[in-house]
Amino acid sequence: MDWKEIVISGRIKVIFKKAPQFHSVSTGILIKAGSRFETPEISGISHFVEHLLFKGTKKRSCNRIKEEIEGVGGTFNGFTSEEVTCYWIKILKNYFDLGMDVLSDMVQNPLMKEEDIEKERKVIIEEINMYRDIPAKYVFEIFDRQLFSNHSLGQPVAGTAESVTGISRKNLLDYTHKFYNSENIVVSIAGNVSEQQVSETASKYLSRFRQEKESVFEEWNRKPEGPRITNIRKKTEQTHIAMGGMGISRFDERRYALNLLDIILGGNMSSRLFNRIREDMGLAYAIKSMTGFYNDTGVYVIYAGVSPENAEKCISAVVDELKKIKEKGVRASELERAKRFLSSQFLMRLEDNTEYMLWLGEQKISGGRISGRNEILRKIDSVDSKGILSMAEELFTSSNFYVSLIGPKADESEILKTAESL
Q1: Which of these, 79, 8, 9, 51, lies nearest to 357 by C-alpha position?
Q2: Residues classed as catalytic
Q3: pLDDT digits (tens, 9 = 90+) for 88-121
Q4: What is the sign, positive or negative, of the torsion defined by CA atoms of 16, 20, 22, 23?
Q5: Does the predicted model carry a pTM greater than 0.70?
Q6: CATH value of 228-420 in 3.40.640.10, 3.30.470.20, 3.40.50.11190, 3.30.830.10
Q7: Which of 99, 122, 206, 248 has the fewest CB atoms within 10 Å distance of its CB?
């Protein structure tokens, strides 16, 4: 087994990978709190809380937090997604105790002073405005909003300027009290530290979390209602396009078939879309496909940035490639190359103990069974061309095709006609 699990004080779940080849230890506290747990009125509150936890605790100022970790060469950060908030520290093994002390202090004892809230509110609104000024990023927010209409999965992780403006200190305190509890927390550790050290240090610093109910979210159970188009008119040099539809959940055994289909379609420079759109047609510098997995659903999305006059041509070429995969499947050589790429990328990711820590922690916090490296490699290798074809036939349909564009012009009727042909 690649890891060990420890339960602290009968409640706190700790997952641990001993990696003696490293000088360092990466520790993360993952919390089942993210944008899909939020209502529209407090959209962005998980991300807001994440910002504030770096601003000081009852025994450490903001500067002291930074100085204690960076003063011994450590690095630390946090992130918020749809389903998880994470705070992590990477530090030399000699300072493992310090790292756990600081992390647990941040998560259990944040001050959330009114003056810090108001400062960080401005910072977050500027962050939101920044991304809205980057159409290559903002188009994905538009795509999610269209795909998950009137559902929390369609809300931006950072919220909106309006929702962030309306979040009060009471909202923030109530939210952390509800979600930052023992049932919602997983501690993930990977690095050069012993099981005894992990058990003793985690018990020392993590035994004070409240015991509350595990948080739940509104599940996604709707069927696709495409084809649909959202066109944001803006004076830009390029038209930025995000197109795709519903995918499958992280618990679906076919996820590796979808991963491989994604690689073949647009996951690297050997992919069909890269060769067709960029190399053969010269339409785009950036062309790629991606997948996303949630507990109950997922997405597949293709991005391209093209000259406005080429938007319809690009979308038509993408749809043509989707049809080809549905009609003819994939070549054996393509599939084998994709398998080697996916397996190698997975293994190389785990050479970084922070990535290893996140890989274990994200599996554990999702509530599913944790798969080991060899098991995942076997599942990747077991995918055959029939599985790829079945995945393409299920996902690449006109009813499951949504297009979001940001640019100066687009022929919506022509794009809709192309989407209906899928």
Answers
A1: 79
A2: 50
A3: 999 999 999 999 999 999 999 999 999 999 999 9
A4: positive
A5: yes
A6: 3.30.830.10
A7: 122
